[in-house]
Backbone:
């Protein structure tokens, strides 16, 4: 019974509950942060959710009950339960929870003062993997998927004065989930990003899109959308630096189209120019910083603002160095992306799932182009319609959140997926979905080598027709092959499209030294980088790479004592922030590009 229920929950991309369209640019709105100390209860048997007959218990922990007298039996108490800082992952906050996969209950008290006429949303930047949210003892909704934001309109559920929110977070892996059970990163559980109580007027701008019209440099286009389908409302867009101020009137769908004659300075890694934008309705304004650029491919070239570019990239997991754990804050983003800049990057691959908004915005400020990805990874259940719906939902939410970030140039729909008809259908649909949602950006996916013979490797994945860039991961010299093979390997990639190497690398324990053919040494990793970069430079369509990976990161699959100790050691930087030799090899290569 329990398993059936869990399965049902897992299959629903978005389960019951009044989840609303996610607020665009939430940080520019009036909000009260609910970050900070939350009480938590560890619940390995889901005792707070099911009764002893394994039925959903109407008196579950979400009721936040207290014993009213000495005869009243209540077998939990949030108020005496320990505290955890939110946002965080529980695995690195409590040693007992390092390997834990299951349920934790979180509770936070807060006071609320209603502003007449306003609406209030409870917003979560992300919770991994499934979150059921309760307010003042009532369920308000469920969300599936660990890396995308969600919010609920809780206006009618809030009380003047004291309130409490309870969230049941469960990070069990499911075969049909997205990601599935097998992945090479830590399955951090918890409320991993900001929690905000957001105040908006009754009628407000809930979403908007703004960018250069595709293929033109003298017109800014987009749209503004109200939370209700009301016609005749005047919304104003202002870009003071371009001396633009334009009133627009909404149609019956509550939307107003934007089309402005303007020639903004273009955003690029050399000049990451962002413009202050104000959108207003009545007296309420929402501010953003938006950059303008064109991204396209032409034959085997990637072109930014009409000029050929080479993507000097690095792959990054959303994991904080030094303290370990999920990265989420602006400071975490500054550390990781600061290293990418030092490496000489103009591009980062944010692997393998949508990263937090701070990462994307900081990258934009620093002039780093971005590859943004959904966790359609390895052996997803291609035949399962629920899995597809879940993946599409996550992809849609990623695009919806970040559509105004000009630094995002590639939406990636998958990583290293094995060929089958069902997989091809699944990914073709996902790629078509991404393209329909955002025709202005490039679509790719990290593919694999499809075959090797006589020292010639081929990439002719069926999915190549659906992508703008042929991207693939390959670990020649690490998972198969020798360093010498790298010197002589030829590549057969017969597409008139740019080629991007989304991963290569080797494991090295920082401080471990030896001959350049000794595995796990810094020398081996550095040598593999030297040879691999030279090898790919022989491919005429070679348009960039994002080697694996910036920093060593936790993975349950990495068990070699004394070397891995649960870290994937392919970082150019150790988890303690110390650079390995290969860092400088890649830095030199990028200097010459
Ligand atoms: C890959 C995966 C990445 C792994 C990496 C490795 O191909 O895409 O998630 O961490 O290889 O280190 O094996």
Residues:
């Amino acid at each position: 019974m329990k398993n059936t229920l869990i399965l049902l929950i897992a299959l629903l991309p978005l389960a019951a509950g009044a989840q609303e369209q996610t607020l665009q640019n939430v940080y520019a709105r009036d909000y009260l942060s609910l970050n900070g100390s939350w009480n938590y209860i560890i619940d390995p048997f889901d005792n707070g959710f099911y009764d002893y007959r394994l039925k959903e218990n109407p008196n579950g922990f979400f009721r936040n009950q207290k014993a009213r007298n000495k005869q009243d039996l209540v077998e939990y108490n949030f108020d005496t339960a320990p505290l955890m800082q939110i946002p965080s992952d529980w695995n690195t906050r409590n040693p007992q929870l390092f390997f834990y996969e299951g349920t934790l209950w979180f509770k936070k008290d807060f006071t609320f003062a209603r502003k007449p006429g306003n609406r209030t949303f409870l917003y979560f930047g992300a919770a991994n993997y499934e979150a059921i949210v309760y307010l003042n003892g009532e369920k308000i909704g469920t969300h599936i998927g660990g890396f995308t934001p969600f919010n609920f309109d809780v206006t009618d559920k809030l009380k003047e004065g004291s309130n409490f929110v309870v969230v049941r977070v469960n990070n069990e892996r499911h075969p049909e989930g997205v990601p599935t059970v097998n992945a090479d990163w830590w399955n951090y559980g918890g409320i991993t990003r900001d929690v905000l109580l957001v105040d908006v007027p009754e009628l407000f701008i809930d979403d908007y899109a703004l960018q250069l019209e595709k293929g033109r440099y003298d017109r800014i286009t987009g749209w503004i959308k109200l939370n209700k389908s009301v016609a005749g409302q005047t919304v104003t867009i202002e870009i003071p630096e371009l001396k633009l101020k334009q009133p627009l009137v909404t149609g019956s769908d509550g939307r107003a189209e934007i089309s402005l004659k303007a020639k903004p300075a273009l955003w690029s890694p050399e000049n990451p120019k962002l413009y202050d934008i104000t959108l207003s309705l009545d007296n309420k304004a929402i501010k953003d910083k938006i950059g303008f650029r064109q991204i396209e491919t032409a034959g085997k070239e990637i072109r930014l603002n009409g000029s050929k570019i080479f993507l000097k990239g690095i792959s990054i997991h959303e994991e904080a160095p030094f303290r370990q754990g999920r990265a989420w804050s602006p400071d975490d983003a500054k550390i990781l992306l600061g290293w990418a800049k030092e490496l000489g990057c103009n591009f980062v691959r944010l692997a393998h799932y949508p990263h937090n908004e701070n990462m994307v915005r900081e990258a934009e400020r620093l002039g780093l182009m971005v590859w943004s990805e959904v966790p359609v990874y390895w052996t997803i259940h291609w035949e399962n319609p629920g899995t597809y719906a879940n993946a599409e939902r996550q992809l849609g939410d990623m695009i919806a959140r970040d559509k105004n970030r000009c630094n995002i140039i590639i939406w990636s729909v998958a990583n290293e997926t094995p060929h089958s008809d069902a997989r091809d259908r699944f990914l073709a649909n996902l790629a078509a979905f991404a393209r329909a949602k955002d025709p202005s950006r490039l679509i790719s996916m990290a593919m694999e080598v499809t075959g090797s013979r006589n020292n010639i490797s081929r990439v002719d994945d069926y999915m190549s027709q659906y992508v703008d860039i042929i991207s693939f991961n390959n670990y020649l010299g690490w998972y198969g092959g020798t360093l010498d093979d790298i010197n002589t390997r030829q590549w057969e990639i017969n597409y008139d499209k740019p080629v991007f190497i989304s991963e290569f690398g080797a494991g090295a324990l920082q401080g471990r030294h030896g001959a350049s053919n000794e595995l796990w040494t810094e020398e081996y990793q550095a040598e593999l980088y030297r040879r691999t970069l030279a090898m790919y430079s022989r491919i005429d369509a070679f348009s960039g790479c994002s080697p694996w990976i910036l920093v060593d990161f936790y993975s349950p699959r990495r068990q070699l004592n004394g070397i891995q100790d649960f870290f994937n050691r392919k970082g150019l930087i150790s988890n303690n922030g110390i650079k390995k030799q290969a860092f400088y090899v890649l830095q030199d290569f990028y200097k010459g590009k």
The two ends are 59 Å apart (CA to CA). The chain has eight helices and 35 strands.
